[in-house]
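Inputs:
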Amino acid sequence: MKTITTDIAIMGSGLAGLTAAVKAAEAGARVAVFEKRPFQGGGVSNTPMMTLAVRDDQEYKDKAFKVHMEYTNYSADAAVVRSWIDNSSHIPEFINGLGIDFLHVMKFDLETLGQLPGYSAGFPKGMHLGDYYFLKGQGKGHGAAVICKRMADTVEKLGGELYFSCPVKGLIREGDKVVGLVATDKDGEELRVSAKAVVIASGGFSDNPGMIKEFTGFTYTNNNCDDGGNVLFNTFPGARMTGDGQRAVWEIGGAQGSMGINGHNLVPGPGIIGHTPWIMKNQMRIIQEQPYLWVNQRGERFIDEGISNNHMAMGTSIARQPDKCSYIVFDEATKRHMEQEGLEYIYFIFPAEKLTDVSGQFEHLIDVVGNKHAFVADTVEDLCAETGIDAAGLTRTLDAYNDYCDKGHDDQFAKDPAFLRPVREPKFYALRCFCGGYQALGGIKVNGKCQVVDDDYRPIKGLYAAGDCAAGEIWGNPPTGGIGVTTICFSQGFITGREAVEYAKSL
Amino acid sequence: MKVDIQDYCIRCGLCEDLYPVLFHLNIEDDKIDLKYEGDIPAELEDMAREARRDCAIAAIFLS
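Outputs:
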């Protein structure tokens, strides 16, 4: 058995862990980071393109806080939300300090917070809480990958140590405080780490099907959903986020915090997404953004489709449908509309004002790739036979929906009349959408200082948590609601780095 | 020309998505497999240069 002594031991080298490491090292602490994979970055490297910062203005921060709490129906932990928001204003400066620029910044004025519809951080009607900073990446990658590498380099320059291929196996608790951790080094030998404070930043549990089933009710599936599952993860594929940190905390008496999936609407592959979700193989992801007719397996509408480009809202709604499954259905006329006149919603990640050769794309997906979730049929009956949608239900829905389109008013869900397009003209197209997962988050209960607490809400001395594993207290309930977590990772990284060092100095 | 992947590669698989002729994301072993262990064919050298430019983490080295 090997032994190491350090001031701050950190489990995980993603955004949260490395931010904490940089901050602790800058404050003069000895830092050791333990990462089970052979490289830095955790899950975040593989996608996030932006982060959110709430301006350092009291009125603005107060409004952002109130908007967030209102949208979570006050089910989020107010102290944790407040500390995240108050610390987030430092994020842009921190990223720039790593030598990384922003592609652009979307600024939202005070009065627009919580008011704008569409793609946003969270809930129906949008939840704009601050300014969006789009990270400048290297090559065709997104910026988070470079940020993690720069932070890892910074930690080493400041004298910190990074232990790769070194999974943490458990925490060491003596009385009311945590005094270190046990890991396995790259040679398979046990490593006993004595630390004044430990920060858990091990990510979510997206790659642990058992935990997903147990704590969210979803069944994890493969990329084609051909195994009966109903949730798949496309944002951090293969990130090895298996809930190790959560389990380590629970084993030494830490309380279980809120857990859930940060869901969205997603047509399963193959042939749509590869390993890198931001590089699409066709325009199916753009189609599924559109506010046309959406139905469930019974052929019934279930939402004002005007919300279709708010991913978390759609994910939340789809998760409540039979088999957690939905379809966007459109006809030849709407296909032509998307090709010739243009789209209702332009998806800023895959910007296109018009679609190209939709029939050809469907044909390729169905006949060449073998995707099981794209459908084209000559009749509504045939479409139902292929998809499994209840034919009587869809027929009833179409009768009513087409009537709404004709008269220009959606009696059922009051959808914007501009989005009312009838479904009458053969051919008929459908994409089957499941609840995709951006992340499976939470599990460690923390307070506003990111101290891990026990079931009586008492802090466990010397133990902190940040990022995905500690984000559950922020999104509140419903369980498939959520918020982009890069902002939480940075912010809680600042907090844990600072608080852990202060605690270590107090010993 | 030889292609090398640095240890800090994040295994995102972007290289396979864009250049499957040269790279494969080996999820089981958590590494990037090179389709050519030695020199790559001359006709793929431009592609390798593009792959180096596109890599999210600048982990593709050419020699």
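Remarks. The longest helix of chain B spans residues 45-54. The two ends of chain B are 6 Å apart (CA to CA).
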